[in-house]
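Narrative of activities, Objective 1.

The group set out to show that a structural description can be obtained from nothing but a protein's sequence at a throughput compatible with the screening campaign. Below is one input-output pair from the validation batch, recorded exactly as produced.
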Amino acid sequence: MRLIPKEIESLWTLFTAPTIWALHFLACYITAAVTCAKAGAVPFSFDTMRLALGLITLAALAGIVLSAVLAWRQWGFGSGDPPHDEPTRKDRLLFQGFATLLLSGLSFVAVLFVAMPLVFIGACQP
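Output recorded for this entry:
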């Protein structure tokens, strides 16, 4: 029994990981900007914001890993070597799975880089 049905694999899965990264990027930078701009007016501390964004980062990474697992399955668990350039449905699905897997890896690294300031910055800078 599969947790996620194979039928959901479509062209939309190609955009899942970059979309998660973009939403994570916006959440991190908007939240940090508002928190630092309104330092006394927000009802939570900088450390609370860092913790919340850390949890959002973990959720984003989990979503990207799920996207990568789906891509790995669509790619046939790495059974076919690229290039997948034949004009057949099978090669199109293999190419799409491989491309989604690569985008998932890139998005995973991008989320880590966006979250890196949460580790190194301890307070808002004037």
